[in-house]
Predict the structure.
Amino acid sequence: MTLPPSLNNLFQPPVRRLGLWLRAPGEGTLRLAPAAAEGPSLPVQDWYCAGEGSQPEPPPRHPPGSLRRRPPERDFYMDLIILPEKVGPLEILTYLVVCPQTGEALVVDPGGPAPGLAAHLRREGWRLRWILNTHGHADHTAGNEHWAAATGAPVVMHRLDWEFFRRPKMQEEARREGFPPLTRVDLPVEDGHRLPLGHAEGLLLHTPGHTPGSLCLYFPGHLFTGDTLFVEAAGRTDLPGGSLEALLRSLQEKILPLPDDTRIWPGHDYGGTFPSTLAAEKENNPYLTDFF
Ligand SMILES: [Fe+2]
C-alpha cells in the first residue's frame, strides 16, 4: 500500500538495535522486564514489556549490500513499550508509550493519576516528555494537571479542541459530570505535528468527527485512536462539536491509508479483540465496512 508522503519518512531504521522484541498476545513468548515483574500488577495486563535480548536477532531480509529497498521497518516500530491502564469512572484507556533505548515516554489521555503507569515510570526511571490528549473530553483530560505537576511535561492537544473545551460552557459541563475542567494546554497543535520520542517519532493526525479537534497518534505499526475509532465501533458524533460526516472523512482520508497491520489502540475498550489491527477493523468495524 502506498503511504501518504507525510508518512513515508517515518519508516526510518533505528539508530541502533538493542535486541528488544515486543510481542502482542498470541504472537510469541512474552517476557517482562525484571523491574516490571517485581512491581504491583497493573489493572490491565501489561503486554508490551520485554527484556533486552529476550528474543534472538532475526536474520537479515536481504543479503548485505543488497540494493533492494527494505520493507516497512517492523523491527523499528516494535521497539516501543506500550502500557495501557483503565482509569476513571468511564474506564478510559490511558497509555504510557516508551522508547526503550532512551527511556523517553509520553502518556496518552491521562484520565487520572493511573498509579500502575506511574509506578512503572518511577521504577524504570523513564522520563515523561509529553502529555497528549487525543481530544478535549473531560474523561481524557482529567489527569492532565496531576501528570504535569508530577513530571513537568507539557500538555499537547489540537488547537480546535483547546479553543472549544476551554469555553466556560464546556468547563461547566465537565464539572457537572464530576471531572475537573480543562484549564491548561501548553502546546496547541495542528495536523501533521510530530512528537519526538527518543529514537522514535510520533505523527499527529487531525481526525475531526467525535470532536472538532480529535487527534490520532501514529507511530509506524501503532495508532492511538482516542474516541475516533474503537474496536468494531467509533466514537459518538452526537455530542457538542461532533459530526458524522467529518468522522467518516477522517476515517477515509487519515486512517484507511495506513498499513493493514497497524495496531489499533482505542480510547475505550468496548469489547472485541484489544488491541485490534486495521486489517481486522476493515473486516469487522461497521464504520469501515458499511460506508466505503
Ligand atoms: Fe470522547
The longest strand covers residues 81-87. The two ends are 17 Å apart (CA to CA). Residues 1-77 have pLDDT under 50 and may be disordered. The chain has eleven helices and 14 strands.
